[in-house]
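Dear colleagues,

I hope this message finds you well. In preparation for our joint manuscript, I am sending the Methyltransferase (Tuber magnatum) sequence together with its predicted structure, so that both groups work from identical material. I would be grateful if you could confirm receipt.
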Amino acid sequence: MAQSTSTTKDHWSSKAYTEEVAPFVAELTTEVVSLLDPQPTDKILDIGCGDGVLTARLSQHCSSIHGIDSSENMLSSARAHHSTPNTTYTHLDATHLPLPATSTILPPQSFTKIFSNAALHWILRVPPPQRIEILKSLHNLLVPSGTFAAEFGAHGSCAEVHTALIAALVHRGVAVEMVRKACPWWFPTEEEARKLWSEAGFVVEKFQVALRQTELPQGDVGGWVRLFGNGFLELVQEKEREGVIREVVSVLESVGQVGDGSGVFRVNYIRCRILARRRGV
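The corresponding C-alpha coordinates are as follows:
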Protein backbone atom coordinates (compact mmCIF):
# COMPACT_ATOMS: atom_id res chain seq x y z
CA MET A 1 0.00 0.00 0.00
CA ALA A 2 2.47 2.63 1.14
CA GLN A 3 5.84 2.85 -0.50
CA SER A 4 8.52 5.53 -0.55
CA THR A 5 12.23 5.39 -1.17
CA SER A 6 14.51 5.48 1.84
CA THR A 7 16.29 8.56 0.49
CA THR A 8 13.18 10.74 0.71
CA LYS A 9 11.09 12.00 3.58
CA ASP A 10 8.50 9.56 4.86
CA HIS A 11 5.37 11.57 4.02
CA TRP A 12 2.95 8.73 4.63
CA SER A 13 0.42 9.15 7.43
CA SER A 14 -1.71 6.27 8.66
CA LYS A 15 -4.43 8.66 9.83
CA ALA A 16 -4.59 10.44 6.46
CA TYR A 17 -4.39 7.18 4.53
CA THR A 18 -6.86 5.04 6.47
CA GLU A 19 -9.29 7.53 7.96
CA GLU A 20 -9.34 10.51 5.60
CA VAL A 21 -8.11 9.93 2.05
CA ALA A 22 -8.06 6.25 1.13
CA PRO A 23 -10.04 3.94 3.42
CA PHE A 24 -11.19 2.22 0.22
CA VAL A 25 -7.72 0.72 -0.37
CA ALA A 26 -8.18 -2.07 2.18
CA GLU A 27 -11.91 -2.39 1.53
CA LEU A 28 -12.04 -2.87 -2.25
CA THR A 29 -10.02 -6.08 -2.22
CA THR A 30 -12.50 -8.90 -2.80
CA GLU A 31 -11.10 -9.85 -6.20
CA VAL A 32 -7.40 -9.85 -5.32
CA VAL A 33 -7.96 -11.72 -2.04
CA SER A 34 -9.93 -14.28 -4.03
CA LEU A 35 -6.91 -14.71 -6.32
CA LEU A 36 -4.66 -15.16 -3.28
CA ASP A 37 -7.01 -17.81 -1.83
CA PRO A 38 -5.30 -17.96 1.59
CA GLN A 39 -5.26 -21.40 3.22
CA PRO A 40 -4.56 -22.44 6.85
CA THR A 41 -1.11 -23.80 5.96
CA ASP A 42 0.03 -20.79 3.93
CA LYS A 43 3.04 -18.66 4.81
CA ILE A 44 2.40 -15.33 3.09
CA LEU A 45 4.61 -12.35 2.29
CA ASP A 46 2.67 -9.06 2.01
CA ILE A 47 4.58 -6.56 -0.14
CA GLY A 48 3.77 -2.94 0.75
CA CYS A 49 1.57 -3.84 3.71
CA GLY A 50 1.11 -0.22 4.81
CA ASP A 51 -0.84 0.17 8.04
CA GLY A 52 -1.55 -3.55 8.31
CA VAL A 53 -5.35 -3.38 8.09
CA LEU A 54 -5.54 -5.95 5.30
CA THR A 55 -2.53 -7.90 6.58
CA ALA A 56 -4.30 -8.56 9.88
CA ARG A 57 -7.44 -9.69 8.09
CA LEU A 58 -5.45 -12.14 5.98
CA SER A 59 -3.73 -13.45 9.11
CA GLN A 60 -7.04 -15.02 10.15
CA HIS A 61 -6.85 -17.39 7.19
CA CYS A 62 -3.20 -18.49 7.05
CA SER A 63 -0.43 -19.97 9.15
CA SER A 64 1.68 -16.79 9.14
CA ILE A 65 2.01 -13.51 7.27
CA HIS A 66 5.04 -11.21 7.03
CA GLY A 67 4.33 -7.63 5.99
CA ILE A 68 7.07 -5.36 4.65
CA ASP A 69 6.82 -1.65 3.86
CA SER A 70 9.16 1.29 3.28
CA SER A 71 7.20 3.63 5.57
CA GLU A 72 8.04 3.42 9.26
CA ASN A 73 5.11 5.76 9.95
CA MET A 74 2.68 3.22 8.49
CA LEU A 75 4.39 0.27 10.15
CA SER A 76 4.20 1.93 13.57
CA SER A 77 0.44 2.02 13.15
CA ALA A 78 0.41 -1.58 11.93
CA ARG A 79 2.32 -2.79 14.97
CA ALA A 80 0.19 -0.75 17.36
CA HIS A 81 -3.23 -1.59 15.95
CA HIS A 82 -3.01 -4.63 13.68
CA SER A 83 -0.60 -7.08 15.26
CA THR A 84 -1.74 -10.68 15.67
CA PRO A 85 0.09 -13.77 16.97
CA ASN A 86 0.97 -14.84 13.42
CA THR A 87 1.91 -11.46 11.88
CA THR A 88 5.38 -9.96 11.50
CA TYR A 89 6.06 -6.43 10.27
CA THR A 90 9.46 -5.39 8.90
CA HIS A 91 10.69 -1.99 7.74
CA LEU A 92 12.01 -2.84 4.29
CA ASP A 93 11.88 -0.93 1.02
CA ALA A 94 11.04 -3.47 -1.69
CA THR A 95 13.05 -1.44 -4.22
CA HIS A 96 16.13 -2.70 -2.33
CA LEU A 97 15.42 -6.29 -3.36
CA PRO A 98 17.22 -8.57 -3.85
CA LEU A 99 18.78 -8.47 -0.40
CA PRO A 100 22.42 -9.46 0.14
CA ALA A 101 23.05 -13.20 0.31
CA THR A 102 24.01 -12.82 3.98
CA SER A 103 20.61 -11.37 4.93
CA THR A 104 18.29 -13.53 7.03
CA ILE A 105 15.23 -11.26 6.79
CA LEU A 106 13.64 -13.03 3.81
CA PRO A 107 15.21 -16.47 3.28
CA PRO A 108 14.83 -18.14 -0.14
CA GLN A 109 11.79 -20.37 -0.62
CA SER A 110 10.28 -19.34 2.71
CA PHE A 111 6.78 -18.39 1.49
CA THR A 112 4.00 -20.39 -0.10
CA LYS A 113 2.33 -17.22 -1.40
CA ILE A 114 3.17 -13.57 -2.05
CA PHE A 115 0.52 -10.87 -1.91
CA SER A 116 0.49 -7.20 -2.80
CA ASN A 117 -2.36 -4.69 -2.94
CA ALA A 118 -2.01 -1.14 -4.25
CA ALA A 119 1.77 -1.06 -3.85
CA LEU A 120 3.54 -2.45 -6.91
CA HIS A 121 2.85 0.63 -9.04
CA TRP A 122 4.97 2.54 -6.50
CA ILE A 123 7.65 -0.11 -6.05
CA LEU A 124 8.21 -0.84 -9.74
CA ARG A 125 8.65 2.83 -10.70
CA VAL A 126 12.35 2.08 -11.12
CA PRO A 127 14.53 1.52 -14.21
CA PRO A 128 13.47 -1.62 -16.15
CA PRO A 129 16.60 -3.66 -15.26
CA GLN A 130 15.94 -3.05 -11.55
CA ARG A 131 12.26 -3.86 -12.03
CA ILE A 132 12.99 -7.36 -13.27
CA GLU A 133 15.57 -7.97 -10.52
CA ILE A 134 12.94 -7.15 -7.90
CA LEU A 135 10.51 -9.64 -9.41
CA LYS A 136 13.20 -12.30 -9.78
CA SER A 137 14.01 -11.91 -6.08
CA LEU A 138 10.33 -12.35 -5.21
CA HIS A 139 10.24 -15.47 -7.41
CA ASN A 140 13.12 -16.88 -5.37
CA LEU A 141 11.27 -16.27 -2.09
CA LEU A 142 8.48 -18.64 -3.12
CA VAL A 143 8.50 -22.39 -2.64
CA PRO A 144 8.22 -24.42 -5.87
CA SER A 145 4.76 -23.85 -7.38
CA GLY A 146 4.13 -21.01 -4.93
CA THR A 147 1.85 -18.23 -6.15
CA PHE A 148 1.97 -14.44 -6.37
CA ALA A 149 -1.36 -12.56 -6.28
CA ALA A 150 -1.32 -8.80 -6.73
CA GLU A 151 -3.43 -5.81 -7.63
CA PHE A 152 -1.88 -2.54 -8.81
CA GLY A 153 -2.51 0.41 -11.08
CA ALA A 154 -2.84 -0.22 -14.81
CA HIS A 155 -2.13 1.94 -17.84
CA GLY A 156 -4.31 5.05 -17.73
CA SER A 157 -5.10 4.81 -14.03
CA CYS A 158 -6.08 8.13 -12.42
CA ALA A 159 -5.26 9.82 -15.74
CA GLU A 160 -7.52 12.80 -15.12
CA VAL A 161 -5.79 13.71 -11.84
CA HIS A 162 -2.37 12.97 -13.32
CA THR A 163 -3.03 15.27 -16.29
CA ALA A 164 -4.36 18.08 -14.10
CA LEU A 165 -1.25 17.85 -11.90
CA ILE A 166 1.06 18.07 -14.90
CA ALA A 167 -0.78 21.11 -16.24
CA ALA A 168 -0.80 22.92 -12.88
CA LEU A 169 2.95 22.44 -12.51
CA VAL A 170 3.72 23.48 -16.08
CA HIS A 171 1.68 26.64 -15.46
CA ARG A 172 4.14 27.40 -12.66
CA GLY A 173 7.18 27.05 -14.88
CA VAL A 174 8.13 23.44 -14.23
CA ALA A 175 9.38 21.72 -17.39
CA VAL A 176 7.22 18.88 -18.64
CA GLU A 177 10.20 16.50 -18.60
CA MET A 178 10.81 17.25 -14.93
CA VAL A 179 7.19 16.50 -14.12
CA ARG A 180 7.36 13.22 -16.02
CA LYS A 181 10.49 12.19 -14.13
CA ALA A 182 8.83 13.05 -10.82
CA CYS A 183 5.89 10.74 -11.49
CA PRO A 184 5.96 8.17 -8.65
CA TRP A 185 3.89 5.51 -10.44
CA TRP A 186 4.39 2.71 -12.94
CA PHE A 187 1.09 1.95 -14.65
CA PRO A 188 1.75 -0.84 -17.20
CA THR A 189 -0.37 -2.27 -19.96
CA GLU A 190 -1.39 -5.92 -19.65
CA GLU A 191 1.24 -6.81 -22.25
CA GLU A 192 4.01 -5.03 -20.32
CA ALA A 193 3.08 -6.67 -17.03
CA ARG A 194 2.72 -10.17 -18.47
CA LYS A 195 6.12 -9.86 -20.17
CA LEU A 196 7.80 -8.68 -16.96
CA TRP A 197 6.41 -11.47 -14.79
CA SER A 198 7.26 -14.08 -17.43
CA GLU A 199 10.84 -12.82 -17.79
CA ALA A 200 11.22 -13.03 -14.01
CA GLY A 201 10.39 -16.75 -14.13
CA PHE A 202 6.68 -16.77 -13.37
CA VAL A 203 3.88 -18.51 -15.23
CA VAL A 204 1.00 -16.03 -15.46
CA GLU A 205 -2.19 -17.99 -14.78
CA LYS A 206 -4.75 -15.20 -14.56
CA PHE A 207 -4.75 -11.54 -15.54
CA GLN A 208 -7.54 -8.99 -15.28
CA VAL A 209 -7.72 -5.32 -16.18
CA ALA A 210 -10.70 -3.49 -14.70
CA LEU A 211 -12.00 0.06 -14.46
CA ARG A 212 -12.91 0.85 -10.86
CA GLN A 213 -14.52 4.23 -10.46
CA THR A 214 -13.58 5.04 -6.88
CA GLU A 215 -15.49 7.49 -4.73
CA LEU A 216 -13.25 9.74 -2.64
CA PRO A 217 -14.28 10.32 0.99
CA GLN A 218 -16.05 13.69 1.26
CA GLY A 219 -15.11 14.30 -2.38
CA ASP A 220 -11.67 15.35 -1.12
CA VAL A 221 -9.56 15.59 -4.27
CA GLY A 222 -7.15 17.92 -2.49
CA GLY A 223 -6.44 15.35 0.20
CA TRP A 224 -5.81 12.73 -2.48
CA VAL A 225 -3.31 15.01 -4.24
CA ARG A 226 -1.50 15.88 -0.99
CA LEU A 227 -1.02 12.23 -0.07
CA PHE A 228 -0.54 10.45 -3.39
CA GLY A 229 0.83 13.34 -5.46
CA ASN A 230 3.46 14.42 -2.98
CA GLY A 231 6.28 13.63 -5.41
CA PHE A 232 4.82 16.12 -7.89
CA LEU A 233 4.25 18.83 -5.28
CA GLU A 234 7.90 18.71 -4.24
CA LEU A 235 8.80 20.21 -7.63
CA VAL A 236 7.62 23.62 -6.43
CA GLN A 237 8.33 25.63 -3.30
CA GLU A 238 6.17 24.85 -0.29
CA LYS A 239 4.38 28.20 -0.52
CA GLU A 240 3.18 27.29 -4.05
CA ARG A 241 1.84 23.82 -3.29
CA GLU A 242 -1.62 24.76 -2.08
CA GLY A 243 -2.05 26.82 -5.25
CA VAL A 244 -1.23 23.74 -7.33
CA ILE A 245 -3.78 21.72 -5.37
CA ARG A 246 -6.47 24.38 -5.76
CA GLU A 247 -5.94 24.45 -9.53
CA VAL A 248 -6.18 20.67 -9.78
CA VAL A 249 -9.39 20.63 -7.74
CA SER A 250 -10.88 23.44 -9.83
CA VAL A 251 -10.01 21.79 -13.14
CA LEU A 252 -11.41 18.42 -12.08
CA GLU A 253 -14.64 19.74 -10.57
CA SER A 254 -16.60 19.28 -13.80
CA VAL A 255 -14.79 16.06 -14.72
CA GLY A 256 -15.13 13.70 -11.77
CA GLN A 257 -17.79 15.32 -9.64
CA VAL A 258 -21.25 13.77 -9.83
CA GLY A 259 -23.72 16.31 -11.21
CA ASP A 260 -26.44 15.90 -8.59
CA GLY A 261 -25.08 18.44 -6.11
CA SER A 262 -24.05 15.74 -3.63
CA GLY A 263 -20.36 16.63 -3.80
CA VAL A 264 -19.47 13.02 -4.64
CA PHE A 265 -16.22 12.78 -6.63
CA ARG A 266 -14.99 9.67 -8.41
CA VAL A 267 -11.51 8.94 -9.71
CA ASN A 268 -11.06 6.50 -12.59
CA TYR A 269 -8.82 3.87 -11.07
CA ILE A 270 -7.81 1.18 -13.57
CA ARG A 271 -6.50 -1.97 -11.93
CA CYS A 272 -4.31 -4.88 -12.96
CA ARG A 273 -4.94 -8.10 -11.08
CA ILE A 274 -2.48 -10.92 -11.59
CA LEU A 275 -2.07 -14.47 -10.38
CA ALA A 276 1.31 -15.97 -11.24
CA ARG A 277 3.04 -19.18 -10.22
CA ARG A 278 6.70 -19.89 -9.58
CA ARG A 279 8.20 -21.86 -12.43
CA GLY A 280 10.65 -24.64 -11.73
CA VAL A 281 12.19 -25.85 -8.48
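For the figure legend, we might mention the following. The mean pLDDT is 90. The radius of gyration is 19 Å.

With kind regards,
E.M.
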